[in-house]
Amino acid sequence: MAPAAPLVAVHHGLRLPDRQARGLEHGTGAIQLPLRRPRAVRRVRHRGRARSLAVGATDYIMDHLPTVQVKRIAEDLDDQTGESALVITGIKGRINRAVWGPLNRTIITAGEDATIRIWDSETGKLLKESDKESGHQKTISSLSKSSDWSHFITGSLDKSAKLWDTRTLTLIKTYVTERPVNAVDISPTHDTVVLGGGQDAMNVTMTDRRAGKFEAKFYHKILQEEIGGVKGHFGPINALAFNPDGRSFSSGGEDGYVRLHHFDSDYFNIKI
Predict the structure, then answer these.
(1) Residues 113, 133: contact at Cβ < 8 Å?
(2) Strand partners, 237
(3) Half-sphere exposure in the Cβ direction for 183 (13 Å, CA)
(4) pLDDT by residue (tens digit) across 75-107?
(5) Burial 14-43 (b: 16+ CB within 10 A, else e)
(6) What DSSP designation does 61 have?
């Protein structure tokens, strides 16, 4: 029996004004799969190698509520259609993150309403929601999974990041900082998490980089204690990612720079 066609999910929003999601060939960047959408595309995520699944969300525009849509990729691109294999509705406010859960059986979403939701990826049924009292109190701006998918971290404009159990949505740890958090990631090799953000972009020109707190902050994942920071950006940090080998990380900021940082030996010998 032939394998089922791979899937892709599309995240709508305002990042791509031509309102298309595109599949690109590795190496050449050639467009292999354009998907036209009625609203602008915000985010696309693939589901593994054999099958690709991406989650997407639309902003609230006119009378159109945000949706998460799953697209099936045809083996023959000439047979590709714009129909959705699954549409998830019922979320108010922009969806900033949508990722696959363990074994691709669930989809995890988070965004403007400060609520994390876990959905069944086959039926679209809502399975779990984060607790409003222990959860974030303002917009969730970022979400990143651990390398084994057992837990994930979220960052919020409420000046905190939180670590969650992926299956049960139980809150594990909270990391408190003094600035809105725009980006987070989990080290694949050490008990370390990194947070980045800073003063709102609209106020950046009113202060200097020290007052804006534009640095990446590192916390011990278990003890929740701050263990260091890396400066360099002149605007809020919007993206963070550890290298898969855990020996470096990258940051992207409102200042237009992407920076690659290599850890020195002290980082690997931190003792608390």
Answers:
(1) no
(2) 253
(3) 22
(4) 777 776 777 888 898 888 888 998 889 988 999
(5) eebeeeebebeeeeeeeeebebebebbbbb
(6) B
